[in-house]
Amino acid sequence: MFPLTRLSRVAFATAFACALPAVAADTIEPFDRGASDFELYMQHEGLGHTSAQQAVAGEMLLGYGLSDRVSGFVGAVLAADGHYLDASGSFSFGAYGNTYASGPWSIDVILSLAGAEDALTFSPLVEWNWDAEPDLAAWGCYVRAGLEVGGLDTAAGPRRSVVYPMTIGAYRTVRPGHQVLFEFEGGVADLAGEDPAASGHAWRTSALSFGYNALVSEAVEAVTQVSWMPGRDGQDGSAAVMVGFIATLPGGP
User: Fold this and answer.
1) 237: which DSSP letter?
2) What does the pLDDT read at residue 28?
3) How far, in Å, CA of 143 to CA of 22, rounded?
4) Which of 121, 34, 38 lies closest to 70 in space, CA to CA?
């Protein structure tokens, strides 16, 4: 398998609704068999706002290849505000795999469960990929969509919430070991997540991102990303910066 990913392999495909930071742009690529993947990311978001409106976060993820087409993962996040106060943690785990592959087309499915503070989020997602050449060797595009089920405290009391995230992305391998990626994230959000007194759903654009990957050794890939989050309700937009690495560990059947 070509060692570059389209940025992070799984990281935060499920970050739209739950209290986890959207750390890295992402497509679904199975891990090698065995305990074969370690990922670490650091992000600072809210740039352009005051420190109290900013956030910093770090994520660690371990991946395990269960078979050639199915993988599992566990991840943990620590986050705080721009003053490095009001810290909180979260945990996630799940499985994903390739369900269809024919020529340039493939379909992947991911199931995950994430917990943050006193709430859980369950997320089934599907990703459709088109790759001009095998192993991400040239360029391609993808669409990921699904739903996320979680809980919300509203003015009428606690209730279940369902949102519908969507990601559209494209990548280009500019030369061996170097790759760029563009990604759009949005979805249909539950308005009570923004205002406990609100009701209904509305479209929200989450972020526009540009990423750059580079292999620094046969087993380690450096990942960088800059994102723009549009403002709404009269607020200015903000930027985010992420750096991280993906290490391919010596796995085995």
Assistant:
1) P
2) 66
3) 17
4) 34
Which residue in 4, 9, 8, 91 sits closest to 43, CA to CA? 8
DSSP class of 8: B
Count of alpha carbons within 13 angstroms of residue 172, beta-carbon side: 4
Cα–Cα distance list, 156 to 35, 202, 228 (Å)? 45, 19, 34
Amino acid in the structure at residue 234: G
Contact residues for 234 (Cβ-Cβ < 8 A; gap 6+): none
8 Å CB contact between 79 and 60:
no
State the Cα–Cα distance between residues 43 and 240, nearest whole angstrom.
7
Closest to 150 measured CA to CA, from 120, 173, 170, 125: 120
Distance between CA atoms of residues 13 and 247, nearest Å: 19
CA dihedral 73, 77, 249, 6 (to 10 degrees): 80
Domains of the chain: 34-248 (2.40.160.40)
Task: State the Cα–Cα distance between residues 207 and 239, nearest whole angstrom.
Answer: 9
Q: Which amino acid is at 120?
A: L
Consecutive sets of 10 residues in the chain, 253 residues long: mean pLDDT of each? 36 35 54 86 93 92 90 92 92 92 93 87 94 90 94 82 93 93 93 83 92 92 94 87 90 54
| Nearest to 107, CA basis, from 144, 60, 148 | 144
Quote the strand ranges of the chain, DSSP E: 34-47, 55-65, 70-81, 88-102, 105-116, 119-131, 139-146, 148-154, 157-175, 178-190, 201-215, 220-229, 238-248
